[in-house]
Design goal:
The structure holds 2 protein chains of 2 kinds. By secondary structure, chain A is α/β, with parallel strands linked by helices. Chain A contains 8 helices and 6 strands; from the N terminus they run αααβαβαβαβαββα. The longest helix of chain A is centred in the middle third of the chain and has 17 residues. Chain A is globular. Chain A starts with a helix and ends with a helix. By secondary structure, chain B is an alpha/beta fold. In chain B, a hairpin with a 5-residue loop joins strand 1 and strand 2. The relative contact order of chain B is 0.20. Classes of the chains: A alpha/beta, B alpha/beta.
Chain lengths: ~220, ~210
């Protein structure tokens, strides 16, 4: 691992600090931040096999009226096959997948909207999933960000990290952020953004409401 | 395993891959590259594609100031320009981002980055850019090239036809790069051959459209 990669890891940690969504101001320039272990993604396989400690809480469970225990925020490293299996386990729900990265400012800015959609529509049958294209070694920094956001849905990090393999393996043609919306039959019915435009949060809202059968 | 999901993702990947060149206006390999003219550079000069007729090969790279992916590639672009200048390769960096939405992408900040100042953590060297850095204030050039993100590269051959488009290499972290897409493409083009991989998936921050 060379110095550049270490610096990138350090900068990613800095991006996770409060205020990372701020676009103005110079990039963080504190090289003294501790860098995490930045072993290559191939070495992250052991982490990838570690299941999340917390099982997903279904919408049905959420409706039982039991004392509300806030679901802990978790994240784990995943590859594309495991991701397919996760999606397959959501049969019957509308699924919104948010592909993002902490190094991607529009992604970080869009993330609260994804969290808000989950809060509004989880009980109506909306599953929300996030997949980060950050380095697997940055898992703790990603988790801190997700906790800060209140992302109590299923969160993953691509085991391929911030390389082109993440886009290739997960089938993204272009850059993050990209949102994908699947209907209750598991068909991909919407992808955001439209070419040459930013993600339109209101368009996402409309599409989610339509698939859930909710009058706007 | 639910086959429908797999098929759905596969089909989506296929459809989106077809769109990957940039949606409706995607460029094609061997297509004449869109012209651009009189773009303001950080050197306070205007730059047009037609100014570079002496270059055997032009590398148009859409990049910007704020994006860590762009920043992470600046050293590599400087090294590439240094390594390939004598071979007739000219890099031209174009910032298409809307500075009203991302103040870090302002023209003044472009000057600072190009001068080797205000670089943050993503670059080792403090070298100034050794290629023009110009602004696409109307975003028309990025649209004409169907660029989607920063960095996004288009290599134009001696006839100014598109010979390669996509990523610079396969990883933001220099130490994890395994595939040198851009350098391999340049080597092939300079030998008069088509690149073995003429189109790769671009990777970076989405262009900040107005």
């Amino acid at each position: 691992m060379n110095a550049s990669a270490l610096k990138i890891a350090a900068a990613m940690i800095l991006l996770a600090a409060p205020g990372c969504t701020r676009v103005e101001g110079p990039p963080a320039d504190d090289a003294d931040q501790p860098a995490q272990d930045t072993s290559p993604p191939a070495d992250a396989g052991a982490d990838a096999a570690t299941p999340s400690d917390e099982l997903p809480l279904s919408a049905e469970q959420a409706e039982t009226g039991a004392p509300a225990e806030p679901r802990p925020v978790t994240v784990r490293v995943i590859d594309e096959q495991e991701f397919d299996e996760v999606l397959a386990g959501y049969g019957g729900d509308v699924v919104l997948v948010d592909f993002w990265a902490m190094w991607c400012i529009p992604c970080v800015e869009l993330f609260p909207h994804t969290v808000a959609l989950h809060e509004r529509f989880a009980e109506e049958g909306l599953r929300v999933v996030s997949v980060s294209f950050d380095q697997p070694e940055s898992e703790s920094a990603v988790l801190d960000f997700l906790k800060d956001q209140g992302a109590t849905f299923d969160n993953f990090i691509s085991r391929y990290g911030m390389g082109i393999q993440s886009s290739e393996k997960f089938g993204l043609p272009g850059p993050v952020p990209q949102l994908r919306l699947y209907d209750r039959e598991g068909e991909l019915v919407h992808t955001f953004p439209e070419p040459q435009s930013p993600v339109d949060p209101e368009a996402v809202d409309r599409a989610v409401e339509e698939l859930l059968g909710i009058e706007p | 395993m639910n086959g429908k999901w797999t098929v759905g993702i596969g089909a989506a990947a296929l459809v989106l891959s077809i769109m990957a060149g940039g949606g409706m206006a995607a460029l094609e390999i061997a297509q004449k590259a869109p012209e651009f003219s009189r773009l303001a550079g950080v050197d306070d000069q205007e730059h047009s594609l037609a100014d570079y007729t002496d270059a055997d090969v032009v590398v148009v790279v859409f990049t910007c100031n704020h994006c860590p992916a762009s920043q992470a590639y600046e050293d590599r672009l400087i090294a590439l320009q240094r390594d390939y200048r004598a071979k007739g390769v000219q890099v031209i960096a174009i910032n298409p981002n809307c500075p009203e939405k991302v103040p870090l992408d302002s023209f003044e900040k472009m000057k600072e980055r190009a001068a080797g100042n205000d670089l943050g953590n993503w670059r080792d060297a403090k070298e100034p850019f050794n290629f023009p850095y110009v602004v696409d204030a109307t975003q028309e050039v990025a649209k004409a090239y169907a660029a989607t993100c920063t960095p996004h590269v288009f290599v134009l051959d001696g006839d100014r036809k598109v010979a390669y488009m996509g990523a610079i290499d396969d990883h933001m972290a220099p130490g994890l790069v395994e595939r040198q897409f851009l350098r391999d493409a340049l080597d092939a083009i300079l030998e008069g051959k088509p690149p073995e991989t003429p189109v790769t998936r671009e990777f970076g921050c989405g262009i900040v459209w107005k």
